[in-house]
Amino acid sequence: MSSSRRREAAALVIPSLLPILVLSVAPLAVGVSLAFTDARLVRAPDFEPVGLDNFVRLLDNALFWGSFRIGLVWAVSVTVLQLAAAMGLALLLDSGLRFQGLTRVLALVPWAMPPVVVAIMWQMIYSPNAGPLNAALGALGLPDDTNWLGDFSTALPAVIAVGVWVGMPHTTVTLLAGLQQIPGELHEAASMDGAGAWRRFTGVTLPGLRPIITSITSLNFIWNFNSFSLVYVLTEGGPGGRTMLPMLFTYLEAFNNRNVGHAAAMGVVLVVVVVLLLTVYLWSQLRDDGERVG
Amino acid sequence: MRHLVRPAQYAALACYIVFLGFPLLWLLSASVKSSVELNSLTVSLLPSEWSWDNYTRALARQGLLRSMWNSAVVALSTTALVILTALPASYVLARIKGAVRVAGVGWILISQVFPVILVILPLFLVLRTLGLTDSLLGLVLVHTTYTLPFALWMLQGYVSAVPVALEEAAEVDGAGRPAVLRLIVLPLLAPGVAATAMFAFVSSWNEFFFALVLLQSPENYTLPITLKMFIGGEGKVALGPLAAGSVLAAIPSIVFFSLMQRKLASGLMAGAVKG
User: What are the UniProt keywords, alphabetically (chain B) (predicted)?
Assistant: First the structure.
């Protein structure tokens, strides 16, 4: 590359590199290092390095690990249900039914809604007295007085259902794009060999979608584990902490209890665990692929 | 057995349509119901009589109009800044192979894994030092930074589609570099710029977390924050205006997604947009 071209490239990149470095890369680095200090959210911040103290204290913080467990239940259930529901819808959209246009638009709308609006909408659906869900259950002769978001046993499943609703469109669209790349001849060949619908699904469709399923479940898992706004507005972590996702817990530790250092340590632990889980998942997927080929 | 497959498929499709569409219909219906009907215990999807009362009541609230204005200012400024900074950089990202590209793509991926909570703590301290917390300017800067990686990703895809040969031909004809970029490349990027601008606008308009942490005084609230405060406060009794405000807040994003429907469905942007 000529030096004038190089200067041109630098001049073109700097305007977007600068804000990313100053407001994204640097804060991230500082954020990680705050985990090793006793920083507090006060007017005149004055903090000392405390080594691994924050992490040691985290070890016997039962509330944090409780929230961590809720976060795993939430992220795994939402990711798995999203995949299952989206797979069903993508297969239907790929099988030449009518109402494709309507379903496609509907399948995309949840994607576009502001999280706050989604939360308000579902609060109305789940409303114990005037909500359509309880009304429908009552009409079927089932118990119609469940306080979905307020009851200890139903709050987390109710929130998970909303998570599936929000994330389904994106997963459906991705899977549909993948389905349309599988050559039709493969299905025809399998039919000729006498394979039924289920055999064709497990023998042709699933292997063809495998790379897409791996990448979309990994991304969904990260996004779900890191999600904040939806559940914050829906329940604020209640009732009694039953929907206290780790990001909510960390947020409250930083901005209500003002323990910035401690909150940063929680953030670091969450990242490390997510990366570890993903590594194990991706490694097992790759190993399976290797076995198939070999 | 075989003749049962189609009906079963339609039944399944109907379930999906109800699951995906019903909450939206319910919100729309609540926004045009009278407060008497909303507070009664009869539950019905169709309002007994249509009334636009909730919309006038929602818009009459000082806070709502003001925060709608704030949201529009923040989203438009973010969009302008994102396009101005991402357009030149995306050109480089698409045209230059090697380390720059790897670093750029790498950062886009890393920014997906890290929870915003780790970034917001130091970011909050930095912005407070600069006097930019509780300020719309500070929010615009943050929104711009966090929309940039994906905007770069989208735009560089469009740049890659412009043949390098076209630029070389223009240079052979004697056009200087600035002229090539402005007269040849830029016009071809117009659809990509439009799509990216809409994406940036909607991301900023919908954004909740940074606004929640950074904005403190009600006159600076953006629409999502005002709606959130409204739920906790009088929203419990004023369900209708809350629904009307929510419908208004959802309009820009729904317009965007109906315009982008085909592109999204073709999987062009699949794998990266997350609301």
Answer: Cell membrane, Membrane, Transmembrane, Transmembrane helix, Transport
DSSP state, B236? G
* ipTM of predicted complex: 0.85
**Average pLDDT of the residues in A184-205:** 84
Computed over its alpha carbons, how large is the radius of gyration of chain B?
A: 23
State the Cα–Cα distance between residues A112 and A121, nearest whole angstrom.
14
Judged against a pLDDT cut of 70, whether residue B41 lies above it is answered with no
Contact A45 B208 (CB under 8 A): no
CB-based contact (8 Å) between A104 and chain B? Answer: yes
3-class secondary-structure state, position B271: coil
pLDDT per residue over A94-106, tens digit each?
A: 887 777 777 777 7
**pLDDT band for position B82 (50/70/90)?**
very high
Residue B67 has pLDDT above 80, yes or no: yes
Helices and strands, number each (H, E), in chain A: 14, 0
Q: What is the CATH number of the domain that holds B169?
A: 1.10.3720.10
Which residues are bridge partners to A37 per DSSP? A49
DSSP bridge partners of A49 = A37
Note the pTM of the prediction, 2 decimals.
0.86
Domains of chain A: 61-293 (1.10.3720.10)
A265 interfacial to chain B (CB closer than 8 Å): no
In-domain check, residue B133: yes
Dist. CA B31–CA B34, nearest whole Å: 8
Number of domains within chain B: 1
